[in-house]
Structures are given as C-alpha cells and as structure tokens.
Amino acid sequence: MRLADFPVLLLVFFPRVLHKDPYHSDCLPVHIACLVELQKANDLFYLAHKLVDLYPEKPVAWFAVGCYYLLVKKNDAARQYLSKATSLDRVYGPAWLAYGHSFAIENEHDQAMAAYFKASQLMKGCHLPLLYIGLEYGLTNNSKLADRFFSQALAIAPKDPFVLHEMGVVAFQNEDWEAAKKYFVEALDSVQSGQQGLSSEKWEPLLNNIGHACRKLKKYTEALDHHRRALILSPRNPSTYSAMGYVHSLLGNYAVAIDYFHKALGLRRDDTFSTNMLEKCMQQLLYDLDPCEDVPDDLPIPANRTAGDSEEIITESVETSDVVVAPSNLSSVLADASDSDMALEVSMDLEGSD
To answer: What is the rounded distance in angstroms from the CA atom of residue 35 to the CA atom of residue 42?
Structure first.
C-alpha cells in the first residue's frame, strides 16, 4: 500500500465499506493504520472507544486503543493495551507488529525484534515484519543480517520505497556508492509514481541520502540539487544545511559554505561537524583573500618623514612580522574529512505504515 493511497482509502473507500458494515473485521486494521499514518488522533480515539464498547472481547478493539496511545506517544499505555489484544488472540499479527513499534521507539531492540519475529511468523507473505527486523539489526550495527532481511522484504515487495531506501543505506555503509544511489533513486521513482510530487516531510531523508551518494561519486551539482529539494520538505533541518555547506566547501565555494554552516549552527548549536568545517572554511577563506585589497601599491609618504625613512620602516616591518604560510590545497583536507561526522540519515518514520 502506497503512502498516496491512505487519504483515498480513508476518504473514499472506507466510508463505503463502513456504511454497509460499520465494523468490518477485515477492513478495521487497515482503517486504524491509515488513521495512525495520517495523524488523525481524534478520529482514532472515537473509533477505539466505540469498538471497546461494542466488542470488548475482540482483539481489534484493544489494538485500536493501543494504536491511539502510540500515536500520542504514550508507549507504556500502548504496550498495556496491545498486550491485552495479543492475549485475546495470540495469532493477531497487527497487534504484535504495533507491540514491536512501542519498543522500537524507545530503542529497546531485543524486545522489538522478538515482537517482530512473532509477527513475521503470523503474517506470512507480508514484508513489513521483515523490514522492521532489518531496521533493528541495522540500528545494532549488524549490517549483514540487516541486508538479509531487507533482501527478503524486497523479494516480497520490490517497489516498496521504504525497503528500497534501507537497501540503499546498507549499500552506502558498505561503501558501494553506485548501488546506494541506484536503490535511493528507485525508491524516489516509486514514491513519485504513486503521488503528484513529494509533499511529505517523511521523504526528506531519502532526498538527502541521494545527495550523500552523489557527493561520494563526486557529482556535486547533482548532490546540491537533491539537498535543495530536501530543504523544501524540511526547511529547519540542520543536517541539510551542513550537507550543502560540505558540498560547497568541496567545490571551493568557501564563502557560501560558511553561510550554510552558520545556518546549521543556528538550528543546532552543538553540531560538531558544522563547527569544525566552519573553522576550516574560514581559515581557507582568509588565506585566499588579499590582505590589502583595493589598497594602491604606492602609499603616500607622511609629511614628517622622508622617502628613505619610509623605506626603512616598511623593510623592518616585513622582516620582523610572523609570516603565515597557507596550506597548498585545503580542498584535499576537506575531502578527507571523516564521514562519521557527516552521518547518513538512516531513520525513517515507519511507525504506522502497516
């Protein structure tokens, strides 16, 4: 199911089905997932209460309540109600999937993976549990197992942009820049084929990651284009400004790079990468500038001094001054900056996409 399908399902399809059967058992889990994805907390609260009043013995009612608490970021309460849903029906896959989300949000990787593995056993043919298992392995720096589960998810859903994005992340971590860019671009094409342009902030990491891959391939102009598109979706993301500043520094546009690093630090003052790069770019810009720009070569001689006195003073000044020699090429220093500072944005907001 594509992201663009959620509003259509919620506004067109579900009203028709629910008009005939207000509590269609097969339709309700998808309806609840769409409400979560579209941040419809009030509608989900109303639906959950009606389900609990009418069907307190069915797991879908408590699944709806748990999803509501996930949406409002009350994870302990969400786990309590999702656990009740799984106790009513031990093979109710959507509840196990949401139960895993409640742990993943708090970086409880072991508990999250246990729930996702249970969901994968119950939801045969669904790629989402495999995708989430791969995400958890990726977050614990186990890229081999992450790649294995992402590949299984890709075999089931070859056009899912979330799966393609995570495959690109694994390729980037393995320093296979061409493969990373290929997966990222395929993910972008999949998103754009399902909706008119990119309008959700959810896709900002994807555009930035294409820019990172292009930068690694030394396609700097293309990298800047993708970072600008990401900036449109999320104008206050300091990582995007840092990335654009880094690309400009590699191009030798130090004044422009300084401006972007200043913007990044204005949004996130403890950005170590931007602080270090700002210092390097300012140093190089000072080396490149003429210290006496627009000053005539022949300076006027003061009235109380002769030409010989002036010559003697200037000569002495040059001999006793500390001469600073600029490095031959700071661009190479910038290009060798650690990529651990320019961290790849691997996290995507997948909660509720089931």
So the answer is: 9
Closest by CA to 75, choosing from 37, 102, 95, 48, is 102
- The Cα 81–Cα 67 span in angstroms is 9
The answer to whether residues 113 and 101 touch, using CB atoms and an 8 Å cutoff, is: no
Spatial distance between the Cα atoms of 286 and 142, rounded to a whole number of angstroms: 44
- pLDDT (tens digit per residue) in 118-147: 999 999 999 999 999 999 999 999 989 999
Contact 291, 318 (CB under 8 A): no
Rounded CA separation 36/30 (Å): 10
User: How many angstroms separate the CA atoms of 85 and 92, rounded?
Assistant: 8
> Residue 32, SS3?
helix
Q: Say if residues 25 and 60 touch (Cβ distance below 8 Å).
A: yes
CB 129 within 8 A of CB 116: yes
| Length of the chain measured in residues | 354
Q: Is residue 354 very low, low, confident or very high in pLDDT (cuts 50, 70, 90)?
A: very low
Helices and strands (H and E) in the chain: how many: 19, 0
The whole-angstrom separation of Cα 233 and Cα 75 is: 28
Q: Which of 147, 203, 154 is nearest to 172 (CA)?
A: 147
Q: Judge whether 69 and 78 are in contact, CB under 8 Å.
A: yes
Distances (CA, A) of 282 to 45, 249, 325: 54, 10, 15
Residue 313 pLDDT > 60: no
Tell me which long-range contacts 195-203 makes (C-beta under 8 A, separation of at least 24). Answer: 195/2, 195/3, 195/4, 198/229, 198/233, 199/233, 200/3, 200/233, 201/233, 201/234, 202/3, 202/348, 202/349, 203/233
Confirm if 146 and 135 have CB atoms less than 8 A apart.
yes
**Which two structure tokens, joined as six digits, stand for 18?**
């629910």
User: Residue 311: is its pLDDT beyond 50?
Assistant: no
